[in-house]
Protein backbone atom coordinates (compact mmCIF):
# COMPACT_ATOMS: atom_id res chain seq x y z
CA UNK A 1 0.00 0.00 0.00
CA UNK A 2 1.55 3.34 -1.02
CA UNK A 3 2.24 5.82 1.74
CA UNK A 4 0.98 8.91 -0.04
CA UNK A 5 -1.98 7.50 -1.97
CA UNK A 6 -0.25 6.40 -5.14
CA UNK A 7 -2.22 5.94 -8.31
CA UNK A 8 -3.68 2.68 -9.49
CA UNK A 9 -3.95 1.65 -13.08
CA UNK A 10 -7.56 0.78 -13.75
CA UNK A 11 -9.29 -0.68 -16.71
CA UNK A 12 -12.13 1.52 -17.76
CA UNK A 13 -14.57 1.12 -20.56
CA UNK A 14 -15.18 4.46 -22.26
CA UNK A 15 -18.70 5.27 -23.37
CA UNK A 16 -19.80 3.70 -26.62
CA UNK A 17 -18.48 5.44 -29.69
CA UNK A 18 -21.14 6.18 -32.27
CA UNK A 19 -20.46 6.71 -35.91
CA UNK A 20 -22.98 8.20 -38.23
CA UNK A 21 -23.64 6.38 -41.47
CA UNK A 22 -25.36 9.35 -43.03
CA UNK A 23 -23.69 12.55 -44.11
CA UNK A 24 -24.92 14.46 -41.06
CA UNK A 25 -22.36 16.83 -39.62
CA UNK A 26 -21.93 16.28 -35.88
CA UNK A 27 -19.65 18.12 -33.57
CA UNK A 28 -18.52 17.32 -30.09
CA UNK A 29 -21.04 19.69 -28.52
CA UNK A 30 -24.02 19.10 -30.78
CA UNK A 31 -27.12 17.40 -29.49
CA UNK A 32 -28.28 14.09 -30.76
CA UNK A 33 -31.63 14.49 -32.45
CA UNK A 34 -32.67 10.88 -32.48
CA UNK A 35 -32.71 8.69 -29.42
CA UNK A 36 -31.15 5.65 -31.13
CA UNK A 37 -27.64 5.70 -32.56
CA UNK A 38 -26.95 4.44 -36.05
CA UNK A 39 -23.99 2.22 -35.20
CA UNK A 40 -22.58 1.50 -31.78
CA UNK A 41 -19.02 0.35 -31.25
CA UNK A 42 -17.46 -0.35 -27.87
CA UNK A 43 -13.76 -0.31 -27.31
CA UNK A 44 -11.88 -1.29 -24.21
CA UNK A 45 -8.52 0.23 -23.47
CA UNK A 46 -6.41 0.46 -20.39
CA UNK A 47 -5.16 3.93 -19.66
CA UNK A 48 -3.61 4.92 -16.36
CA UNK A 49 -5.27 7.82 -14.61
CA UNK A 50 -2.97 10.77 -14.14
CA UNK A 51 -3.05 12.43 -10.73
CA UNK A 52 -0.94 15.42 -9.83
CA UNK A 53 0.70 14.88 -6.46
CA UNK A 54 3.31 16.74 -4.48
CA UNK A 55 6.00 14.31 -5.52
CA UNK A 56 5.07 13.98 -9.19
CA UNK A 57 4.38 17.46 -10.50
CA UNK A 58 4.07 18.39 -14.11
CA UNK A 59 6.90 20.58 -15.41
CA UNK A 60 6.11 24.28 -15.43
CA UNK A 61 7.33 27.11 -17.54
CA UNK A 62 10.33 28.94 -16.08
CA UNK A 63 8.58 32.30 -16.10
CA UNK A 64 5.67 30.84 -14.11
CA UNK A 65 8.08 29.35 -11.57
CA UNK A 66 9.89 32.67 -11.29
CA UNK A 67 6.59 34.52 -10.83
CA UNK A 68 5.46 32.05 -8.15
CA UNK A 69 8.76 32.38 -6.28
CA UNK A 70 8.55 36.16 -6.53
CA UNK A 71 5.00 36.06 -5.16
CA UNK A 72 6.01 33.78 -2.29
CA UNK A 73 8.90 36.10 -1.40
CA UNK A 74 6.62 39.15 -1.55
CA UNK A 75 4.07 37.47 0.72
CA UNK A 76 6.82 36.56 3.21
CA UNK A 77 8.15 40.13 3.12
CA UNK A 78 4.65 41.45 3.70
CA UNK A 79 4.17 39.16 6.70
CA UNK A 80 7.53 40.31 8.08
CA UNK A 81 6.55 43.95 7.53
CA UNK A 82 3.26 43.33 9.36
CA UNK A 83 5.19 41.82 12.29
CA UNK A 84 7.59 44.79 12.32
CA UNK A 85 4.68 47.25 12.20
CA UNK A 86 2.95 45.44 15.06
CA UNK A 87 6.19 45.48 17.10
CA UNK A 88 6.68 49.20 16.40
CA UNK A 89 3.11 50.01 17.41
CA UNK A 90 3.57 47.99 20.60
CA UNK A 91 6.79 49.87 21.44
CA UNK A 92 5.09 53.23 20.81
CA UNK A 93 2.17 52.25 23.05
CA UNK A 94 4.54 51.12 25.81
CA UNK A 95 6.55 54.37 25.53
CA UNK A 96 3.40 56.50 25.76
CA UNK A 97 2.21 54.54 28.80
CA UNK A 98 5.62 55.05 30.42
CA UNK A 99 5.49 58.81 29.76
CA UNK A 100 1.99 59.02 31.26
CA UNK A 101 3.14 57.00 34.27
CA UNK A 102 6.13 59.32 34.70
CA UNK A 103 3.88 62.40 34.47
CA UNK A 104 1.53 60.96 37.11
CA UNK A 105 4.50 60.17 39.39
CA UNK A 106 5.91 63.68 38.90
CA UNK A 107 2.51 65.23 39.65
CA UNK A 108 2.18 63.10 42.79
CA UNK A 109 5.71 64.04 43.89
CA UNK A 110 4.93 67.72 43.26
CA UNK A 111 1.74 67.42 45.32
CA UNK A 112 3.65 65.77 48.16
CA UNK A 113 6.42 68.40 47.92
CA UNK A 114 3.81 71.17 48.16
CA UNK A 115 2.29 69.56 51.24
CA UNK A 116 5.77 69.21 52.75
CA UNK A 117 6.53 72.85 51.95
CA UNK A 118 3.30 74.02 53.63
CA UNK A 119 4.05 71.91 56.72
CA UNK A 120 7.63 73.26 56.87
CA UNK A 121 6.28 76.84 56.63
CA UNK A 122 3.85 76.14 59.47
CA UNK A 123 6.64 74.68 61.61
CA UNK A 124 8.83 77.70 60.81
CA UNK A 125 6.12 80.07 62.00
CA UNK A 126 5.88 78.15 65.26
CA UNK A 127 9.67 78.26 65.61
CA UNK A 128 9.74 82.06 65.41
CA UNK A 129 8.06 82.31 68.77
CA UNK A 130 10.75 80.28 70.50
CA UNK A 131 13.46 82.07 72.39
CA UNK A 132 11.44 84.97 73.73
CA UNK A 133 13.10 84.38 77.09
CA UNK A 134 16.62 84.51 75.66
CA UNK A 135 17.33 87.86 77.23
CA UNK A 136 16.89 86.49 80.73
CA UNK A 137 19.72 84.43 81.91
UniProtKB/TrEMBL annotation:
Region of interest called Disordered, as start-end residue ranges on this chain: 1-67
Biased composition (Low complexity): 18-28, 36-47
Listed Basic and acidic residues bias regions: 1-10
UniProt keyword terms in alphabetical order: Coiled coil
Coiled coil: 85-119
Top-level lineage group: Eukaryota
Protein name: Uncharacterized protein
Origin species: Lophiostoma macrostomum CBS 122681
